[in-house]
Every structure is written in structure tokens, then in C-alpha cells.
Amino acid sequence: MLVADGLHKSYPNRRVLCGVSLSVSPGEVLGIVGPNGSGKTTLLRLLTGEELPDKGEVRLDGRPLCDWSQREKARCLAVLPQEGLPSVPFTVREVVEMGRHPHQGFWPWAGERDRHVVESVLLETGLQADRDRHVDQLSGGERQRVAIAKAMAQDPRVLILDEPTTFLDIAHQLGMLDWIRSWSQREGIAVLIVLHDLNLAALYCDRILMLKEGTCFAQGSPSEILTPDRIRKVYGVQPVLTRHPVTHAPQVLLQPGAGDSSATKPAESFTL
Ligand SMILES: Nc1ncnc2c1ncn2[C@@H]1O[C@H](COP(=O)(O)OP(=O)(O)OP(=O)(O)O)[C@@H](O)[C@H]1O
């Protein structure tokens, strides 16, 4: 459904992506993981057409992404950027309704189907009680849920999310990821999700693509990808790997003081 072949991207004096290829199929959740600055957000920008690759191609349903009009793309592909929703002076219901615009005519008047979709999304995301609240009065986590609800109302076939759990507490992280996964399986939506939390990636992704300094370091099932050796080489930490007692997914336990700064360049330096 969404395929990228050999993507390269550089900015002045900085090579950010080098030959990254991936594909995500209907009903599948592909996780993108990697350290700060490894190129995850840049990769998503190329996959959504927000930026063009220097080399390589992105195809949606077999057609080069650059051949899709903005409107065609918006009917098929929903994107949740890292910064989430801006603090806009609209109500929750109005923002969720905006997700329907790509499906409406020149004048964005809501029809029966639009109203039905918006009401079911508000119900499913637990936002019914907040429907008349203004988005600019919500907390970061509440705004993130509205952003997801808007993407869902868009009724996409591909959903791209950049770190959607950042502002959410653990209950809402699980609630949101449970919801995204069951929605993906039920409706056959291809999901591509950037996650920093390797444990959540192991629990929720069918496959993981691990980036290191702009290259695809490894790609495969969570059990194939999340090994102590790979995590040490990519993140420069020495983790302990265990199995989740219920799902048997790999889980990463961190050890204080077990960083290995020789394995990877430090993303930032800290001075105390
Ligand atoms: N417009 C730009 N101009 C120049 N450099 C850029 C630009 N956008 C990104 N970069 C650089 O490209 C590299 C990768 O950035 P990107 O945001 O894709 O990383 P990331 O893996 O998403 O990082 P994080 O986990 O911190 O969000 C970084 O070194 C960043 O400074």
C-alpha cells in the first residue's frame, strides 16, 4: 500500500537519510525507532510528501506519491505530526469535523455520513463529554486525543503518526495504541508509527524498522530487532532484554549507569 524505495535526503552540509526502503500493508503496524536525530521525522516527511527525496521514490497504491493531488492524498492518508494539534479556538467537535473536509464537496457542509462518522469517532475516543470544549483550553494529552480523533474522522487507509504518545499518561498511551491497532485490523488501515518507547513498539508493532544515523540498521519482527547487541550499537546503552510474561513480546529493561558512549554519538551533551 505505502512503499518507499531507496530514499536519500540531505540538507546543506548534513546527510540525513541514506537509502531507506520500507513498505507497510493494509492492517499492518510498522514502527519506526531510532535515537534522536536518526532521521525518523525526516523519513515521515518524505512518506507524506511534505518534502521530496533527493533520490528514491514513495508510492501509494502503486502510484508515485508526487502524482497524487493534495485532496486525493488527504482522502487516503492521515498524518499526526510530532507537534500534535495547534492550540486553536475551535471546539472538539468542530476539529473532529475538519477531518471530514477531504471527503466533502467545494463547500464543506456535513452530510449524513459525515455526521455519523464524527459522532462514532467522538464516542469511540471517549471525547463525547468534551465535545463542546475549546481545544485551546485542553491539556496536551487531551489535545493529542482530539488530533487522533480528527485523523480517524478522515477515514484514511494509511495512518502516519510521529510520537503520538508523548503527552499521554500510561493509561491513555495504552488506550490509544490499543485503539489504533484494533482500528487498523478492523478496517485494514496501514499504520506507520514513530515511537521512542521500545517496549510499546514491541507490544504494538507487527514489524519494526530501526534507524541509525539515517540508514536502516535493521527491519523485522520485534523479536528479531530488539536484541541487546542491536540496542547497544544503535542507542549506546547496555540493556537487559526479557519477555513480557503475558504477551511474550521482548521488553527492554534499562540499567542506570550502563550507557556506552562509544557505541553511538551522544545526541546532546549535559553539563551539571
Ligand atoms: N530542515 C532541516 N535543515 C537542516 N537539518 C535538518 C532539517 N530537518 C532535520 N534536520 C536534521 O536532520 C537530522 C534528523 O532529524 P529528524 O528530525 O528527522 O530526526 P529524528 O530521528 O526525528 O529526531 P528526534 O527523535 O529527536 O525527533 C537532525 O540532525 C536534524 O538536525
Automatic annotation (TrEMBL):
InterPro entries: AAA+_ATPase, ABC_transporter-like_ATP-bd, ABC_transporter-like_CS, P-loop_NTPase. It comes from Kroppenstedtia guangzhouensis. The keyword S-adenosyl-L-methionine does not apply. This is ABC transporter ATP-binding protein. Pfam families: ABC_tran. Keywords: ATP-binding, Nucleotide-binding, Translocase, Transport. Residues 2-238 form the ABC transporter domain. It comes from the Bacteria. One of its GO terms (molecular function) is ATP binding. Residues 252-272 are annotated as: Disordered.
